[in-house]
Write a structure and sequence with these properties.
Order of helices and strands: HEEEEEEEE
Shape: globular
Distance between the termini: 19 Å
Largest sheet: 4 strands, antiparallel
Strand order of the largest sheet: 1-2-3-8
Structural class: mainly beta
Number of domains: 1
Length: 113
Protein backbone atom coordinates (compact mmCIF):
# COMPACT_ATOMS: atom_id res chain seq x y z
CA UNK A 1 0.00 0.00 0.00
CA UNK A 2 1.35 3.43 -0.91
CA UNK A 3 1.95 6.07 1.76
CA UNK A 4 -0.88 8.17 0.30
CA UNK A 5 -3.33 5.24 0.28
CA UNK A 6 -2.39 4.47 3.89
CA UNK A 7 -2.84 8.12 4.83
CA UNK A 8 -6.30 8.18 3.29
CA UNK A 9 -7.26 4.99 5.08
CA UNK A 10 -6.13 6.39 8.42
CA UNK A 11 -7.95 9.68 7.73
CA UNK A 12 -11.24 7.96 6.89
CA UNK A 13 -10.99 8.95 3.23
CA UNK A 14 -11.25 12.60 4.42
CA UNK A 15 -15.01 12.07 4.65
CA UNK A 16 -17.04 15.24 5.41
CA UNK A 17 -14.15 17.66 4.79
CA UNK A 18 -15.59 20.82 3.23
CA UNK A 19 -13.94 21.83 -0.03
CA UNK A 20 -12.55 25.37 0.06
CA UNK A 21 -11.36 25.22 -3.57
CA UNK A 22 -10.20 23.11 -6.47
CA UNK A 23 -7.39 24.35 -8.71
CA UNK A 24 -6.41 22.60 -11.94
CA UNK A 25 -3.12 23.89 -13.33
CA UNK A 26 -2.67 22.19 -16.71
CA UNK A 27 0.64 23.91 -17.48
CA UNK A 28 2.05 22.44 -14.24
CA UNK A 29 0.19 19.13 -14.48
CA UNK A 30 -1.16 19.57 -10.96
CA UNK A 31 -4.51 19.45 -9.21
CA UNK A 32 -5.01 20.97 -5.76
CA UNK A 33 -7.99 20.31 -3.51
CA UNK A 34 -8.10 22.73 -0.56
CA UNK A 35 -10.01 21.57 2.53
CA UNK A 36 -11.37 23.60 5.46
CA UNK A 37 -10.80 20.82 8.02
CA UNK A 38 -8.92 17.64 7.13
CA UNK A 39 -10.16 16.06 10.40
CA UNK A 40 -13.87 16.78 9.82
CA UNK A 41 -14.57 13.02 9.83
CA UNK A 42 -13.48 12.86 13.49
CA UNK A 43 -15.45 15.81 14.95
CA UNK A 44 -17.07 14.82 18.23
CA UNK A 45 -14.70 11.90 18.76
CA UNK A 46 -11.90 11.87 21.37
CA UNK A 47 -9.20 11.61 18.67
CA UNK A 48 -10.31 14.86 16.93
CA UNK A 49 -7.21 17.09 17.12
CA UNK A 50 -9.08 20.29 16.24
CA UNK A 51 -9.76 22.33 13.14
CA UNK A 52 -6.96 22.17 10.58
CA UNK A 53 -7.14 23.29 6.98
CA UNK A 54 -4.91 21.73 4.37
CA UNK A 55 -4.47 20.79 0.75
CA UNK A 56 -4.07 17.61 -1.23
CA UNK A 57 -1.87 18.36 -4.24
CA UNK A 58 -1.54 15.84 -7.04
CA UNK A 59 1.46 16.46 -9.29
CA UNK A 60 2.50 14.74 -12.50
CA UNK A 61 -1.15 14.45 -13.49
CA UNK A 62 -1.29 12.50 -16.75
CA UNK A 63 -5.03 12.02 -17.04
CA UNK A 64 -7.90 13.90 -15.43
CA UNK A 65 -11.66 13.53 -15.60
CA UNK A 66 -13.91 15.89 -13.63
CA UNK A 67 -17.64 16.03 -13.21
CA UNK A 68 -18.62 18.70 -10.69
CA UNK A 69 -21.89 20.47 -10.04
CA UNK A 70 -22.16 23.82 -8.35
CA UNK A 71 -23.25 23.43 -4.76
CA UNK A 72 -23.34 25.87 -1.89
CA UNK A 73 -21.35 23.38 0.19
CA UNK A 74 -19.22 20.78 -1.50
CA UNK A 75 -17.80 18.10 0.77
CA UNK A 76 -15.52 15.13 0.29
CA UNK A 77 -17.45 11.89 0.40
CA UNK A 78 -14.30 9.79 -0.05
CA UNK A 79 -10.85 9.87 -1.62
CA UNK A 80 -9.27 6.59 -2.66
CA UNK A 81 -5.88 5.92 -4.20
CA UNK A 82 -4.22 2.78 -5.48
CA UNK A 83 -0.60 1.76 -5.81
CA UNK A 84 -0.93 2.22 -9.58
CA UNK A 85 -1.01 6.04 -9.41
CA UNK A 86 -4.77 6.30 -9.85
CA UNK A 87 -7.05 8.22 -7.51
CA UNK A 88 -10.72 8.96 -7.27
CA UNK A 89 -12.45 11.72 -5.33
CA UNK A 90 -16.19 11.48 -4.70
CA UNK A 91 -17.99 14.65 -3.61
CA UNK A 92 -21.25 15.26 -1.77
CA UNK A 93 -23.88 16.23 -2.81
CA UNK A 94 -22.58 15.19 -6.25
CA UNK A 95 -19.47 15.04 -8.40
CA UNK A 96 -16.35 13.03 -9.01
CA UNK A 97 -12.72 13.51 -10.02
CA UNK A 98 -10.67 10.62 -11.40
CA UNK A 99 -7.00 11.01 -12.20
CA UNK A 100 -3.63 9.40 -12.71
CA UNK A 101 -0.77 11.12 -10.93
CA UNK A 102 2.92 10.83 -10.18
CA UNK A 103 3.01 12.15 -6.61
CA UNK A 104 0.66 13.43 -3.94
CA UNK A 105 1.44 15.83 -1.12
CA UNK A 106 -0.85 16.17 1.86
CA UNK A 107 -0.91 17.47 5.44
CA UNK A 108 0.62 15.20 8.08
CA UNK A 109 -1.74 13.00 10.07
CA UNK A 110 -1.90 14.14 13.70
CA UNK A 111 -4.35 11.49 14.88
CA UNK A 112 -3.32 9.74 18.06
CA UNK A 113 -3.04 5.98 18.15
Amino acid sequence: MSDFAGYLQRMGGLHDAEVAGVAWRPSEGSLEIRLDDVYANFRGLPEYPGLESGSIVFSGVGALEMSLEHAERLRIYEITAGDDGAASVAFSPAGRVSLRFGEASYPPCRLRG
